[in-house]
Amino acid sequence: MKSFDTNNAEKNGIIHSIETCGTVDGPGLRYVAFFQGCPLRCKYCHNPDTWDFKGGTPMSVSELAEDVLKYSSYINFSGGGFTASGGEPLLQAEFISRLFKTLKSKGIHTAIDTSGARFPGEKDVESLLQSTDLVLLDIKSITPKKYREVTGLDIRATLAFAEDLSAKGIPAWIRYVIVPELTDSEEEAKSLCKYLCGLNNIKKVELLPFHKMGEHKWEALNRAYTLKETPPPSPDTMEKLHGIFAQYRLPV
C-alpha cells in the first residue's frame, strides 16, 4: 500500500475499498468507491479504517472508470450509478471531478456521499459539483456544540456546503444517524427540520438507526469505542422522529 500523497493525487485517487453492487448509497444499484482519508472522528463511524491518510490503493481515472463500466448494464437498468464515498471524498475532489466527467460522458449517474467537510468556493470542489447529479449529505447534528461532540470538528463547513448546494439547485439526500442519548432528541430533530425547510433542493431525508457493525474495526485499530454500551434506537423512537420530519413535510 502506498501512502496518500497530495502531489500524486493529481494523477491518482487513493481508494480504501470498492463495492460493486451497492444498494444503500443512492438510487438503484451502484458502484461505490470508498476514498481514503477523513478529518472527522465521528463517535459512531463504521469505517474508522478510512480515517488515516496513510494507506489505500492508488487508482487512475481510466482504471477506475473502466472497472465501473464493466457493470454499466445493470447500473443503467436499475437506474443506478456511481457513488464516491469514504472517508471524505471531498478531500480528493480534483480526482473525483475528472472521474465524474468521464463517467457522465458514458451516461453514468454520479453521486457523492459526504459530510461537506470542505468550504464551498474551492476550485476543485466547484469543478466537482458541476459534474455531480446527487449529493448524499451526512448531517451529524444541527447544533454546533453537539456537532463538535459527535465529530470533533466545527459545523460551519457542513452548513456552508448544504447552503451552496441549495443555491446551485443540486439535488440532495440528507442522512441523519439516530444515536440514543446523542442525536435522538425531539428538540434536535425539530431544529434540523426547520433548517432543512430553508433549503430548496432536498429530495429525501434518510433517518438511519445507529448500529455497531464497525465496532470490531475500532478494536482492531486499538481505538476506544465510546458507544460500546449504546443500544440501537427503539422502533418507537424511530417512528416518533419520522413523524416529526413528516410534520414538516420533509420527504422521509
Q: Provide mean pLDDT, rounded.
A: 93
Low-confidence stretches: 1-9
User: Helix tally?
Assistant: 9
Strand-residue proportion? 15-25%
Class by SSE composition? alpha/beta
Could you estimate the helical fraction of the residues in percent?
A: 25-40%
Distance between the termini: 40 Å
Q: Got a strand count?
A: 8
What best-fitting shape do the alpha-carbon axes yield?
globular
H and E string: EEEHHEHEHEHHEHEHH
Q: Major β-sheet, in short?
A: 8 strands, mixed
Give the radius of gyration: 18 Å
Output the strand order for the largest sheet.
3-1-2-4-5-6-7-8
Could you explain how this protein is built, in words?
- The chain has about 250 residues and is of the alpha/beta class.
- The chain is about 35% helix and about 20% strand.
- The chain is built from nine helices and eight strands.
- It has an eight-stranded mixed β-sheet with strand order 3-1-2-4-5-6-7-8.
- Helix 3 (about 95-105) runs parallel beside helix 4 (about 125-130).
- The longest helix has 13 residues, at about 95-105.
- It is globular, with a radius of gyration of 18 Å.
Topology, element by element:
Blueprint: E1 12-22, E2 30-35, E3 57-60, H1 61-69, H2 72-77, E4 81-86, H3 93-105, E5 109-114, H4 123-129, E6 134-138, H5 144-151, H6 156-168, E7 172-178, H7 186-196, E8 202-209, H8 215-220, H9 235-247
Parallel strand pairs: 2-4, 4-5, 5-6, 6-7, 7-8
Antiparallel strand pairs: 1-2, 1-3
Helix pairs in contact: 1-3, 3-4, 7-9
